[in-house]
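Hey team,

Filing this mostly as a record. A colleague (T.K.) asked me to run one chain through the structure pipeline before their review meeting, and I want the input and output archived in the tracker in case anyone asks later how it was produced. No errors, nothing strange. Just documentation.

Input sequence:
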Amino acid sequence: MAAALLGGCATLDPDQVASDVMDEAAQRTQLALNGSGSLDTAPAAVDLALVHNRSVRADLLQAGVSAAELNALSRPGNPIFEVVSLPGGDHGRVLDVDLRASVLGVAATPWRARTARAAYAAERSEALLRLVDFTADVERAWVEAVAARQRLDLYARILEAAEAAMTIAEELDAAGNRPAIARVRERNMLINVQLEYATAQLQAEAARFALERLTGQGVRLEELPVALPAPVPAILPGEDEVLDASLPLARSRAQVEAVSRAAGLENWASLLDHAEIGLAAEREDREWARGWMAEISLPLFDQGQHRRAAARLRAEQALERHAALTADIVAALTNARSVHALAVEQATRVDDDLLPASEALLEQTLLQYNAMQLGVFELLNAFETRTRAGLAWIDAHAAAHQADIAVRQLAAGGSPGAVSIMPVAAGPSADAGDH
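Output structure:
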């Protein structure tokens, strides 16, 4: 009767769980998933990755597996039906019929079901956490890929200018109007620019491949925007808001509950793990004899104290990890706020100060060059300074975007481990380009 009642418990639909997790992740990350299939924006890249990345789909299916396991653990173990038939001579065959069930298997089913539900909640939080972190990883990879493409384009301009300057220098050398040191300086600059361009190519390829691996399909640099978008002012979340939304904390709370319930159950299971009661019937001389049976393991050599101690220590361990995780999330939020403020300030300084200063330097150098007051090396140096100011712009804006992604990841409940002190570009030095 107990088994029949417990068998009618409500169940979760494993196939629906994956869809529910995806919907909640989209709501937390505030991404409009429309299947555009492009790389024009970071959300579009996330949309593309969610469709084509097989690892994400595997994580979602794991949540469905956990739901199916919860359904299984919410029911008691099936009773055992045993029939023994023995020859009985002139009296006919002797039948021995037993029907028995585990005492703990039935009585502890509600307790085990609650433990299994806590474990399912932890697994669902884990799947949701992976999805939230994955969207942040794709956004970061997209920002870095676009920034790498911009850097490569700027280095290509530097290289083009250096090669053009060398052509002019060779003409001047042929006319015999310059000292030998000028040719050596310009040749040295060209070699350094060529090496930097090659490094930029390697970095762009690494960034392209990282984005390709996350999206699950081929990516070409030409498919990406030519420049990073302007950083959008972020709404910085409060500490309580982040802690309430934190999926690692939700998973940790569910794990604490699961191991605590398991520790409570272990107090009985360590003694009654093998305890069965049931009905017995025997047929002999064409007559049935009915009765009952009980079976229990005697706790003579092991009273279960070690199992109970291990379960208690696991519960205390889960509590300690939960407290450490809370402190880690608070520290990550503080760091993310600081980095975001620094990155936005640096991007503003590059826009307001560095770019106008480098543009003014280039204009004045051109005037002096046209008046034959400066040579090719000084002109190339000024052009390189202007271009490196563009590199500083890319670095500062990329850092601002990365900081914004980290803040939004925490607000969506993501992992604090993904938030770290990100480098903020300091811009070129006063003698940039002077190799």
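Quick notes for T.K.: The chain has eleven helices and four strands. The chain has a mean pLDDT of 76.
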